[in-house]
Amino acid sequence: MVATDVAGQAARRARRRAVVRAGTRPGRAPRSWLAVAGALTVTVLVACSSGSGSNPDPVDLDRATDNGQLPWTEVLLPPQTPTTVPFGPPGTDLPSEPRPAGIRVIGDRAGLYGGSPDRVLCDRQRLVDDLEQDPARLQAWSSVFQVDDVRNYVRTLTPVLLRADTRVTNHGFDDGHASAFQSVLEAGTIVLIDDHGVPRVRCVRGSPLLSPVVNENADVQGDPWPGFQQDRLYVVQPSNLAMTEVTVVDLMTGGLSSVPIGSGPQQPAERPNPVAPVEAQAPVADSPPAVVQQAAPRPAPAPSPEPAPPPAPAPPPPPPP
Length: 321
Description:
Structural class: alpha/beta
Number of domains: 2
Shape: elongated
Order of helices and strands: HHEEEHHHEEEEEEEEEE
Radius of gyration: 42 Å
Strand order of the largest sheet: 9-8-7-4-3-12-13
């Protein structure tokens, strides 16, 4: 019995020494397991946030010019909104392999978007003005991006046209708060992107956008447009480095053009002054019609002088005496 107790005590001391050498104390979990547990916790949180539950949020279909759910502002698009998706030059084709979880593209990819260095696509000044008229709306909008200065933030954004159907987390303004929902933006939609190429505002009615919560089992709500394919939806991922310009397919020429990111620190985020149309001048009622100066006619040649009459005959000689 004594021998058994001694042997048991020796075994316990050996286990305790082994635990101490491993860097833990009796009664505490090893650090390596704590790290794994932390990683698993993060993984579970990410999985939940990516919509992997049994009932993922449905995905709404938003056409290019629809007002959408719960708009934030008045229409920010120009009167003649371009919605035709340009084909682009060779080498600008987007990946087309079907992927149920979304086709991932990087935001600085050349030709990912359409755009124009000259044409106004989105009224950013109107966006800021409309938000600032309603403090609750302004606060809700800024809370999506966690920014304090909305005006300066909008100045860093750049208008482009989506060349492909794109997944986003959209937001409506509901009862004083931003209400998030999953959405597909139709190709041809005008959006504002940030300096990493990620869509941030849907320009139709100013809806703020974030990266999507992708779940291949999510139901789609709404009427699909021609060409819509649920396994060919694009998910834009931020570029590694901030861009100073974005290379777009020019909406006017079909070639590649560089569009500066934002409006620059010295330029206000407002629509350029439109060029005044040339008005036709109405004719003055009392003005006589313009006289066209004609060339003077050549003078007629002088008439040829008439021939002199023949000399009169000599008188007859006088008679002789």
